[in-house]
Predict the 3D structure of the following.
Amino acid sequence: MSEFGRRGGDEPVPIGDALAEVGSELGMPDPAVLAVLHARWTELVGENAARHARLRSLREGVLLVAVDAPAWATQLRFLQPDVLRQSAALVGAGAVQKMRVIVDPDAAKTAPETP
């Protein structure tokens, strides 16, 4: 049994470190990786696509993106090689290995504001 949440058995672990450890066990990335991708989303996909696409999750190297219409799904799939390359430059090679795009008509309602 591991000493989850403890360093040296007695020292408390910062909550961010504890969440990162739990997430890692569940196949999720370091929260800092996802934060960088969210913060740079418009840069990764472009302003027009960012208005219609929302980064939903990153799990086991698969970036899940929801778009509000099938045409945007096609556009994001076309952009996939660039998104993967730029993601590797931002967060390191291997963090984002694939991108999966789904259509969700409500995606634009929850998409981050673009400047």
